[in-house]
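Build the 3D complex.
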Amino acid sequence: MLEKFHAKRPLFPLVGFLCSALALIVGMLYSKSLMIFPYIAVLAVLFAAFGLWRAVLGAAVMMGLFGVLTGVLSCLTAGSFDSFFETLGRCLLLGVAAAPMLSIPAAQMTRCLRQMKCPGAITLGILVTIRFIPVLLSEVRQISEAMKTRGVRTAWYRPGTVYRAFFIPLTMRVINISDSLSLSLETRGFAIENKEAAVFRPVRFRLRDALFAVGTAAASVGLAVMV
Amino acid sequence: MKGYFQKFKLKDFVFLAVLAAAMTLAGGVTMPLVMHTTLFGLRNMVAAPLYALFCAIGLMKVRKTGALSVLGLFSAVPLAFMSLVMFFNNVVAALLAEGLMLLLFRRYEKKGAVLFAAGIYMPLSLPVTLVFSMWLNGSSFNDLVAAPIPAIFTSLGTIVLGFLGAWAGCKIAAELQKAGKLKPYGEDADA
Amino acid sequence: MSNAVECRKVSFCYDGTDKMILNEADFILPYGEFAVLSGVSGEGKTTLLSIINGVIPFLTQGKLTGQIILDGEDCTARKVSERAKLVGTVLQNADEQIVYEKALDEAAFGCENLNLPSDAIEHRALAALELMKIAPNASTKTLSGGQKQRLITAATLAMGQKILILDEPLANLDRQGSLLLLETLRKLTRQGYAVLLIEHRLDVVLPYADTVYQLTDGKVVRAKDTERLLTENRIHLSYDPPQNRLREPLLTLSGVRYAPGKQPVLKGVDLQLSRGEKLILLGENGCGKTTLLRLLARIVRPDAGRYAQNLIKQRRKKRPSAVWFQKAGYVYQNPSYQLFMPTVLQEVTCSAVSEGYARRMLSLFGLSGLEERHPHSLSEGQKRRLGLAAVLAAKPELLFLDEPTVGQDVGHLTAMVEALHTLQRETGMTMVTVTHDIRCVAALCDRALFLQNGAIAAEGDAQTAEDYLSGKFAI
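Done.
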């Protein structure tokens, strides 16, 4: 789903998370100033230079379009162009600030959490949630198709049909899937109490991660000074 | 605190994780409809029934203190990759809802506790959204709730739809029980 | 040298019932043996496996007595994750078990839980993936069903346990995939592994197995006469084709192409289906059989080419209507998708032509007495038959079946095929089936189409289909 945004050399996940948070918080604090746009541009260049260009491009384009649409609505409501630029700025910031997180594969994130002694059940749960979103999407499609073959059309204006012919089979499938998965995990040696589990290909903090963090911090400080 | 907390099994975590994936999908379906709006509370209102429905199912299956927080965390994680604000919103709202449930009901023994916790989850994200927006944007309360009547309407709507969704979730859970997929409270060895 | 598995005086009944599934059963599996556990559904094969790997009693409750000894150690009190160090378990439904995006990470998962060093994990995972012919960098999302099953098997093999138990691992595998797995298992037993496999399709497994066990009256019994067993299981269901069969064309495809992604799944397919015909679609995993079935049923639309149907009169409308699906029934491989009513009776009557006919379907498929049960409380085999009954209760003129016999033992398979044959005779129903099951292919086939790389590569009759599934005929 988000694989197209993954970087070839992902950042250390904790660094990615903290830099995302920093960019977002600092940007939002100064979002009313027009200096937000150079700030976003600097962040975008910095992130792209560290190999996150796919995530930056994807997020910036998507949130940019969304920002323009929302900005126009906001402008019409408030009756001033300032409102348009503020809204656009916040949307672009949301997109660009999300880029470090978008570029990190879920498996890397969970490995990092495990190395930090986060409980195995939590890291596994996170992995399962992310991994099973497309699986459940496929299940939803199958159920909708199967109901059509039974002559049942589920539509939002038929809540009774939606309840019976969609939610019931979907919930049954969720339970079956989770039963199957938990059995498989246990028979493959996973145990909640097992604090000794190894981490295959541990994630390491590198110099480039430190440089990335310093760069993001410097840009944020620069914004604070300029405003 | 004896009797408040029960031990989680792996199958509980796995079920909540898969259910969280379903909740994320539900959010993905409803959010694009109202993403462009600036009306306070509309996004929460639209998401409320589906989120509450899945929360109720999750709590009826895993009737252990902490289940809503775990579910909130798992469903918030995909949002962390896209918007940290929504991540914290979901997590904090889940913790608050579970905390209130603990104060009022102590545990999920009664169906009312499940209904309450699942129903109040999304409405509790409203004040969290407000606090975040004020803190991050430096806006005043009046700026954010510029049109008070629609905001009151959306807030009440979130509460009503949240409890409606929770009720539907409990109905589904009753059918799961009939199908043998869900045990009544107390028949699960660890409850 | 100790035995791999020893079950001593094991008795078990599930919570809520008094029926003893196992009754002071003894079972020994030595190292170097490839054993098959076969028999009728519901006799306790999966129960025995679950007792060996610890699922019973630690995850599934019931009354268990007796001793379980693994590799000479008494493991009766050991939990599942502890026993996982000694016993590797391979389950069905691989898609529901994969948690990682990359095949190598998935294969390494079990080794991580055993707390092995990182370089050892990589070495083991790569070796297991090579054995199962899965590329380490493959994305788990793009693997076919058969490849996913092999990946899960590789993930278990990587853990290095010398005792392997597999629960119907061939269910989603085509002939090639099945042979690869069975050859690997035989190789491992020659290296000293102990393998215990549950499988209904004895004809595929027996050439590789050393011993066959059956469960009889709660006891594990070694089958002495495997030839007789094979003959009993190698049922050959076939029926004479009806004399007066209409040759009226019902569906016609011309130059049909279907490409949901970059690669086309179906290319240039020409096909004509006559009324009353029984057509079988055969081919390896990923060749496009199920897609063609779905296209014929109008669940998906072709991207190019012509599709014409003579089943219902319809204005030039692209979407198939409820009337179409009443006349053209489609039965999914996974019955859970199609079951949604609160009782078995309501499930069958909701689209039935009459309640009487619906009740007849229940009787025909061995579901009488279960009318008030919730559909999802039935066993998998019962759900599959219920799915069939519910679709057939609408008296369709055209029936599409996607792997209807998966997991069916001989008895239930025979009953299902006979029921389909009876209905087909009565109503002149046209049938299109996708199957890998040699046991029933002759009974479900007047004509066979063999698909390869999205195109129809060959055509044949029931004998050709049997020869293909037994390996005597290749496309």
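Residues 36-78 of chain A form the longest helix (43 residues).
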